[in-house]
Design a protein that fits this description.
Distance between the termini: 31 Å
Number of strands: 18
Bound molecules: glyoxylic acid, manganese (II) ion
CATH class of the largest domain: Alpha Beta
Shape: globular
Helix content: 25-40%
Structural class: alpha/beta
CATH architecture of the largest domain: 3-Layer(aba) Sandwich
Number of domains: 2
CATH superfamily of the largest domain: Zn peptidases
Length: 421
């Protein structure tokens, strides 16, 4: 997508080749054989990614800080230190079989904006701040969007620090290790807020590509519920135990999931229901499974509908099924969020002024902007994902789309910097 009207907005043109080079370099950190990345939160790869970003930032004279949950802040000073910053950002952590753009794009596009302002000697009154949120993906440690949720007070710091990965390593230990390996930097308190927050991200779905649009002007994020279900049976000998004597937790879990799927069937295909983690215990081929645990990720843009469906799921996940006992608990109930109308308009205007094809849309994925929006006027910009593929090593976005989105980010951040909000 070609960017038109370079002068029309009075804002500078970003350096597209630099943005592309930085994506290539970041993709090598935790790069996988299948062309994706595995750079899960607080792993050595995540630390290396943050290291590289800090090198780029300090070479430009930006200052860095970190808060108690590991959110990283990179600040380009304005002329008025007393004014709150205009903020942008996203995350560098990935899914275990993640793509090269989910999260990284918003971070590198944000850095590109800061550097573009320097290249063109643009002076702002407000500081411009880039945030790298800690553990957006929630794959190594739950819950998803951990750093921004803790910063917003939606998840207590102590609970997040105590979360363990599959090997029993806590966030607290892994974060201490990461901080020791990063260059020393200012310790920031939790609860960062700003004058405005605009996050750029790949769409992670097929809509922009199908509609032949280069820019998504994101007006809202749909709600997300996460449940953990436990099915308890009784471990028994696989060779000697007749069917009628079995309390097979796997048989019960399968029946339960089939029942849940029938319950949430949505002819309009708006409701999203996913069982993404499923663990059978003790996991021996020769033992009738005594326990199964699984996750349910449930999403919908309408808060009432999401809540009713979530409550119905909790009802179905209690009591007895196939001679096993079922229970469920709520891990996360994140309500849908509407973005700030003035900032959404600023993003749309930027796309119009640059002559880019855009459309208004609701985000199907959740993002750190969800928690920023509670405290700071916020908005998001999407760029297309090829074939809608994401959370997959094949994730791809063309360089020209990445560049166009970063340009809109630059224009919209500069507009926000002088807006009354
Ligand atoms: C974010 O990674 C999501 O799953 O929506
Ligand atoms: Mn993401
Ligand atoms: Mn993701």
């Amino acid at each position: 997508m070609e960017i038109h009207n370079p002068q029309a907005t009075g804002t500078p043109l970003i350096n597209g080749p630099r943005l592309s080079d930085r994506h290539r370099e970041m993709a090598r950190i935790g790069g996988t054989a299948n062309g994706g990345v595995n750079r899960q939160a607080l792993t050595p790869e995540d630390t290396q990614g943050r290291h590289r970003l800090l090198e780029w930032a300090t070479a430009r004279g930006y200052t860095a800080g970190i808060d108690p949950i590991g959110n990283l802040f990179i600040r380009r000073a304005g002329t008025r230190a007393d004014l709150s910053p205009v903020m942008t950002g996203s995350h560098l952590d990935s899914q275990p079989t993640g793509g090269k753009y989910d999260g990284v794009y918003g971070v590198l596009a944000g850095l590109e904006v800061l550097e573009t302002l320097d290249d063109h000697n643009v002076v702002t009154e407000r500081p411009i701040e880039l945030v790298v949120w800690m553990n957006e993906e929630g794959s190594r440690f739950g819950p998803v969007t951990m750093g921004s949720a803790v910063a917003a007070g939606a998840v207590p710091l102590e609970r997040a620090l105590a979360a363990n990965d599959a090997k029993g390593v806590s966030v607290s230990e892994a974060l201490a290790r990461q901080i020791a390996e990063l260059p020393p930097m200012e310790r920031r308190p939790l609860g960062a807020t700003g004058h405005a927050y605009i996050e750029a991200h790949i769409e992670q779905g097929p809509v922009l590509e199908q509609e032949a649009r280069g820019i998504g002007v994101v007006s809202a994020i749909q709600g997300l519920h996460l449940y953990q279900v436990e099915v308890r049976g009784f471990e028994a000998h696989a060779g000697t135990t007749p069917s009628r004597h079995r309390k097979d937790a796997l048989v019960a879990a399968n029946a339960l999931i089939a029942k849940l799927r029938a319950e949430v069937a949505d002819p309009a295909d708006v409701l999203r229901f996913t069982v993404g983690r499923f663990e059978v215990s003790p996991g021996s081929p020769h033992i009738v499974p005594g326990k199964v645990t699984f996750s349910i990720d449930l999403r919908h843009p309408d808060p009432e509908h999401l809540l009713c469906t979530g409550d119905r799921i909790l009802e179905l996940c209690s009591g007895e099924i196939e001679h096993c006992m079922v229970s469920a608990n709520v891990v996360l109930r994140s309500t849908p969020v509407q973005f700030d109308a003035r900032l959404v308009t600023a993003v749309r205007h930027a796309a119009e002024h640059r002559g880019l094809r855009y459309m208004s849309m609701v985000s199907g994925a959740t993002h750190d902007a969800k928690y920023m929006a509670d405290r700071t006027p916020s908005a998001m910009i999407f760029v297309p994902s090829e074939k809608g593929i994401s959370h997959n090593e094949l994730e791809h976005t063309d360089d020209e789309d990445l560049i166009a989105g970063a340009q809109i980010l630059c224009d919209a951040l500069l507009a926000a910097a002088t807006m009354e909000l």
